[in-house]
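Mods, move this if it's the wrong board.
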Amino acid sequence: MDVLTDPARRFLAATAPEHAPVQAEMADLADEWGFPIIGPEAGAVLRLLARLTGAERVFEFGSGFGYSATWFLRGGADAVVCTEFDADEAKRGVAFASDHGYADSVAFEVGDAMETVDRYDGPFDVILIDHQKGRYADAYRTVLPKVRPGGVIVADNVTRGPIDFEDLVAHFEAGEPLPDAALDAETRGIGEYLGTVRSDDAVETAILPVGSGIAVSTKVR
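Not the wrong board. Structure tokens:
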């Protein structure tokens, strides 16, 4: 389900920033593999958030071959920790970084992102959560103490992707129960994540319908 009208979707695509050469290569690979990337519309927001926060350190829960990391780097981030469970995807990310001259700015960690983040101390300026949807809320609770005040947490796929958006609308609009995790762990995970950040007074959250929908939470205390 596309939450945007066709003119709005086309307008956002037409006004999004152009891909850098490495991002164009990554987009071609994503098409070849059928691999989801956030795209330039949401990428522009990541770039902006890095710029606005003066980001020095970024941590990603789920990175693939590092497409989203390139947007943070374009926004001036000094260092991005990329996590990926698939070793082949991480290997491609390392190759992209080496071939395009930003290997010193990214670190690819292969394995479970939840285990990886335990090995890193804060503070982080920006966090991207884009791994298993059923673990979004756990990732948020784990990483929040490592985010500096004024830092930002971004969650992807909150309006589109492996979720039932109509179920989310019914839940937040009319109080309908979220689907059982055994039937739809992705939709339930996104619903639980949004419920968690909306009820936590440590952050302020807004949802932006760009790309597959991103929830942006700023740590206020």
